[in-house]
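User: For my dataset I need records formatted as: sequence, then structure tokens, nothing else. Please produce one.
Assistant:
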Amino acid sequence: MVSLRRLLLIAITAALLVVPAVASGHAVLVSTSPAIGAIVEQTPTTVALTFNEGINGVGARVKVIGSDGKRYDEGTPTATGRILKQTLKPDLPEGTSTVAWSVISDDGHRIASSFTFSVGKESTGTAAADAAAIATEADERPANATTLTAVDRALRFAGIILLLGLLGIVALVWNPTLRRGRDEDPATATAADAAFRPVALWLARLVPPALAVAAVAAIPLEGWVNDVDLRSVFELRQGQVAVAQIVLALIAWPLAVRAVRSGAPRLLALAAVPAVVLAITPGLSGHAGAQSSALLAVFVDWVHVLAAGAWGGGLLVLAAAAPAVFRATTAETRGPLLRGITRRFTRIALTALVALVATGVVATLMLTNSLNDVIDTTWGRILLAKIAVVIAAVLAAGIVRRASKSFATAVQIEALLIVAAIALTGTLNGLAPQPPNAAAAAVSSSFQLVQKIEAREAQIDISPTTAGAVSEVHVVVTNGVGQPALDVQDATLELSQGEATKVPVKLSLIDTAHWTGTVRIPTPGTWRVLVRLRIGEFRDEVLTGTLTAT
């Protein structure tokens, strides 16, 4: 049996290893229409909010309170890609209106805030303040929501890395070492295997069903946390990923038990298939899957999880099994066996460590706007501290492994060092990689052009407007009721500074009357934005605006 101390060690280490996969920022509002604080002459028919990453229509809420304190939102808001739209009643009064919004971003977190705009003129007296107070009544997450969701995600991630580590240790470390050991010392090899196999089987029987139970619990938990019904949870990516984890864990369960019991290479390879697929799921349900470059981000996260399983998961399996193996063998006979295990696992661990570092660096660069964000934010400073401790822990582990005469003690010390090395990551959970004022900075560094074309409304968003940065471009055209304008056939966009400097932007249609693309603004200064829309077969409309790049 595995002692309580080793069980706690496994649980703590596995839980802490989850943090790199779940610590992430959330969607950031980059522009609104009407613009924040704007004074417009005509009463708008819709309110539009554009975010830096995808959002869900499920659970979205928008309240628009006029200067008279009454609500003027009509119907339910609609989400298309990064844009959330809310239709307004036609009799919105003159003065300052307040928009309070709440939405579930693609990474599964509910975010909320409010802003104001004015029709004709700003309100005077207390009318605007009263409206703001009414509109910003809380869309708060339930008490302990963050803790419970973090625990559930940690349990699911722990199950994934332990399953990967178990299959990896049996296939790549234990079986090859045991085959060689049986040629050199059959009695010692047989005794060691008789001690190792029950521990490995215990893990094979426990880990997949525990993962499935945690995934089942995630479904009502997501509904409770985000205040949506269970049916709506299955429309969210997080609910769909939980279902996939349940299915994959139940498939892996009997396969892992049979593979660990027999040690057959074919069965181990077959059991590894659902385990490797499971490694994709944390990225799909987290921040990686919500980014504009989601395919690359999810791939990076997948490799990161596989490496965490090979190193951290494998180490936990060895830490659990080593004492039993030591009790079953003698100090005089176990030496060759331990050297084989150490040599094979060290090669795997070093490869995994390189992969962890590489994918961690890439993920950090993708999550942050610049390297300054790593230095200037609490998230970044804690991340740097964690990296420093990881390096120290790896060096210390090498020293301990060489100095210690007991393999079991060395492995357990190494596991404890890893726990110490990654303990700092616990505070990363829920912190955003962007600076605290990222939302305001994003809004202030974005370009938005809104223009009516008869019964249609075209909205062009470019964010950020920083020279040298990769800016996202969105062109969306809606009809009089806020739905996609079906008669708009094509859109092109070009930035220019005089006749000599022209930067065409390649746009791709991602939804009806919604085009997107990216552009790198070459230099700071004033740029002319020219958009051509083809309406029907023969009609062209040209929209122009001025963008100031910093």
